[in-house]
């Protein structure tokens, strides 16, 4: 009986591991950032998450094409809305590949208050079926410090039905920094999302800006880094190499 129970648990976790991609607003490497797009700025994201392992418990590779835009004509208050087309080689999810996201944000120093940090509230992974409705709502605050870079902290809460009871919430944090000492085109970041669900992770990576319209993020996502496994398996699966091509229009 114990072996049967273990097998059921393992199968369930592997299935969850295949559904850990994010329907992305403006992000760091994995978690949202406090950045939001300017009015009429249209943005295309082409994201790839490739597992380092091909073992059955590794989880699937994930591919995402996203379209987002800024829709408020203000400097101090920005609203970004987006839709993502996500594929991850699991029929229950791939039959319903569209996800929505939205973010309302203020930049640092908004309203001529020099020391005011940036704020953002938003939602992502808004699906249209019981298996895709992660419906994660979050809030973030960010402040840039000399030498150190920008520190962001916040919290999130998602669907208990999809992410699991007592596994559907946690904190978010990140540190990112432009690297003019090396090149004005280089940006580095590390981010963290706590919890015991398929999105919990720690990521490291960087971006290179090729032009005002085109940049490329390359990073590594380690899922469930501070959690104990169940029968050697983790909800998020094995680590992934991510590449994220960002194209701004115009």
Your description of this structure?
The chain is built from 3 helices and 12 strands. A 12-stranded antiparallel beta barrel has the order 1-2-3-4-5-6-7-8-9-10-11-12. The chain is mainly beta. It has helices at residues 2-17, 91-94, 160-163, and strands at residues 42-51, 62-70, 78-87, 98-106, 118-126, 136-145, 149-157, 169-178, 186-193, 201-209, 214-223, 240-249. The protein has one domain: monomeric porin ompg (Porin), CATH 2.40.160. The longest helix has 16 residues, at 2-17.
- CATH class bucket: Mainly Beta
Q: Stretches where pLDDT falls below 50 for ≥5 residues?
A: 1-19
Helix content: under 10%
The CATH architecture term is Beta Barrel
Task: Find the structural class using helix and strand composition.
Answer: mainly beta
Task: Give me the secondary-structure topology.
Layout: H1 2-17, E1 42-51, E2 62-70, E3 78-87, H2 91-94, E4 98-106, E5 118-126, E6 136-145, E7 149-157, H3 160-163, E8 169-178, E9 186-193, E10 201-209, E11 214-223, E12 240-249
Summarize the structure.
With 250 residues, the protein is mostly beta strands. The chain has helices spanning 2-17, 91-94, 160-163, and strands spanning 42-51, 62-70, 78-87, 98-106, 118-126, 136-145, 149-157, 169-178, 186-193, 201-209, 214-223, 240-249.
């Amino acid at each position: 009986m114990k072996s049967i129970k273990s097998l059921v648990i393992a199968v369930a976790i592997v299935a969850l591991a295949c559904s850990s991609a994010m329907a992305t607003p403006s992000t760091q490497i994995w978690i949202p950032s406090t950045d939001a797009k300017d009015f009429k700025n249209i943005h295309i994201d082409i994201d790839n998450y490739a597992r380092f392992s091909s073992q059955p418990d590794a989880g699937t590779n994930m591919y995402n094409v996203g379209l987002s835009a800024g829709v408020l004509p203000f400097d101090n208050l920005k609203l970004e809305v987006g839709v993502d087309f996500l594929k991850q080689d699991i029929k229950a999810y791939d039959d319903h590949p569209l996800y929505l996201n939205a973010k309302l944000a203020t930049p640092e120093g908004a309203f001529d208050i020099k020391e005011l940090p940036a704020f953002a509230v938003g939602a992502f992974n808004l699906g249209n079926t019981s298996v895709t409705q992660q419906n994660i709502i979050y809030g973030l605050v960010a402040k840039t410090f000399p030498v150190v870079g920008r520190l962001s902290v916040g919290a999130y809460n998602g669907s208990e039905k999809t992410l699991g009871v007592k596994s559907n919430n946690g904190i978010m944090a990140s540190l990112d920094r432009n690297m003019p000492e090396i090149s004005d085109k280089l940006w580095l970041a590390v981010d963290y999302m706590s919890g015991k669900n398929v999105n919990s992770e720690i990521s490291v990576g960087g971006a290179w800006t090729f032009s005002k319209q085109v940049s490329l993020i390359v990073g590594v996502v380690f899922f469930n880094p501070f959690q104990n496994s169940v029968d050697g398996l983790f909800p998020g699966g094995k680590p992934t190499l991510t590449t994220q091509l960002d194209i701004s229009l115009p």
